[in-house]
Amino acid sequence: MDLEDTLLMMPGPVSVAPRVLRAMSKPMINHRSAEFAGIYTDCREILSNIFKTDNDIFLLSGSGTAGMEAAVGSVVGKGDKVIAIENGKFGERFKDIAALYADVVPAVFEWGLPIDLELIKEKLEEGAKAITLVHNETSTGILNPAAEIGKLARKHDALFIMDGVTSIGGDDVRVDEWGVDIAVVGSQKCLAAPPGLSIVSVSEKAFEAMKEVTKRPYYNDLLAYKKSGDKPKPETPYTPAIPLFYALQEALHIIKEEGMDARIKRHRILSEAVRAAVAELNIEMFPQLNESSHYSNTISAMKAPAGIEGEDIKNDMRKQGVIIAGGQERLKNKIFRIGCMGNVTSRDVLSTIQQLEIVLN
Ligand code: PLP
């Protein structure tokens, strides 16, 4: 396969711009220097705008899952109750991580089905220190009701920890307005940087909670990130993945140049185009929606048509140089997924749909 002539339409990693790739070849610098502090500060400022928050922002060397673990592990400990909402694979992952650090109260819905807010309300009424939600459940293509969960969490004084790994940078995320105490994104998704960094925003309330937790993760301790990030020359507690910081900074400048509103609009239009095109091909969308959930604007999950396995569609597309995703775990072969993340263009979507039509006929 010609890697330089491949169309990546999967839910991350996504294609990165040549200028982002070039940024990674710059010389190494001291990570405790004014140069590094400048890059870190610049990234944090642009990210604040993308997250729509005044909360502290930290860049962790590690993929999105590192950010998920940092978030949960830093604020809860054994004996603390964490309501873990699951309606897909990444909700399940949050639940598994929470179980390592605290006492989990599972709120499990069938993968692909919407969340029942009444049930979440009942669980919160019984008391919990934190609640976890995956905003954009990549495994099923459903956009979960983050604003509503935020409102409920605030009312019941629970910390709201949100996985925005595949929504932040591509969809409308309002960390402060929704009351998200910790939000997480991965560099390789809508931010269109290479994989390897996760970015988290942390509220004052979350920092207060951390001070009471005695067994926080060592490497991904968010209080350690706070201490280093608050220095006059901000830094990270341990040696960061410097080339990835170079790349992320460049990718963030691309976002700034496009503007977040335009970027969100582009993601919406292209995802709508995918949905309209597959409907024309008589393919059904996989998620079932209710009034508070929506189709994802960054990843579309479709049912594999009768008689065709999702993996076959994925593999046949791959042979044509278009990389899409199949279903994960229990959804393997049942669905296939087309990502519209990062710097995807209408030409990319048209090529993907054209190939899909050929593969299905
Ligand atoms: N959360 C969501 C919603 C994701 O889509 C993913 C990855 O696809 C992750 C978490 C995990 O991220 P990573 O693979 O970067 O650790």
TrEMBL record:
Alphabetical list of PROSITE patterns matching this protein: AA_TRANSFER_CLASS_5 (PS00595)
GO BP terms, alphabetized: glycine biosynthetic process, by transamination of glyoxylate
A Pfam family annotated for this UniProt entry: Aminotran_5
Keyword NADP on entry: no
UniProt-listed PANTHER family: ALANINE--GLYOXYLATE AMINOTRANSFERASE 1, AMINOTRANSFERASE CLASS V
Family: Belongs to the class-V pyridoxal-phosphate-dependent aminotransferase family.
Protein name stated in the entry: Serine--glyoxylate aminotransferase
Organism taxonomic ancestry: Archaea, Methanobacteriati, Methanobacteriota, Stenosarchaea group, Methanomicrobia
